[in-house]
Design a protein that fits this description.
The structure is a single chain. This protein is 32% helix and 15% strand. It has 157 residues and is α/β, with parallel strands linked by helices. It has a single domain, classed as TIM Barrel, CATH 3.20.20.80. The model has no long low-confidence stretch (mean pLDDT 91).
Length: 157
């Protein structure tokens, strides 16, 4: 994230922006999604990444796309709603001027990790939804990723 924030990846990002612009159709980019989940290289807390680094990198990417005229691109801020991480998203929010949509990724892991792990869609998303719509109430919201395992409950329900 620091390399992006410091401009060391600008050439690559600018080319991607030009390619997206040339394509001309709507593009939704969830740049560095699930920033609050520990399993991604860009995650906050991994590789020395901080909330500050994340926000600086996000803003730089958006600014580069704008400077290249890629007006068909929308940027989607999308944290994860895992069982251990359901709040604290505001600290990594790049700001209304840099986020076009908000989104959430959340999964029902059933009893894969804990005996009582089965949860409903509402339980998985409601706290995170309420938090994000509290500090970004004018942004459209989508569920970007969701799924449910087969074990530990009624997947269809």
């Amino acid at each position: 994230m620091k390399k992006i924030a410091d401009g060391r990846k600008d050439a690559y990002i600018r080319q991607f922006a030009r390619d997206a612009k040339a394509w001309g159709k709507p593009v939704y980019i969830s740049f560095a999604h699930e920033q609050n989940a520990p399993y991604y290289e860009w995650a906050i807390g991994k590789n020395g990444n901080t909330h500050y680094d994340y926000i600086r990198a996000w803003r730089r990417v958006v600014s580069l796309f704008r400077s290249e005229g890629a007006t068909n691109v929308r940027f989607v801020g999308c944290p994860a709603t895992t069982a251990a991480i359901t709040t604290g998203f505001k600290a990594s929010y790049p700001g209304d001027s840099y986020v076009d949509w908000t989104a959430l990724d959340g999964y029902n892991y059933g009893t894969v990790y804990t005996p009582s792990g089965w949860t409903s869609f509402t339980n998985r998303f409601s706290n995170a939804y309420n938090e994000i719509t509290g500090f970004a109430p004018t942004k459209p919201m989508m569920i970007a990723e969701t799924s449910s395992v087969e074990v530990g409950g009624d997947k269809a329900a």
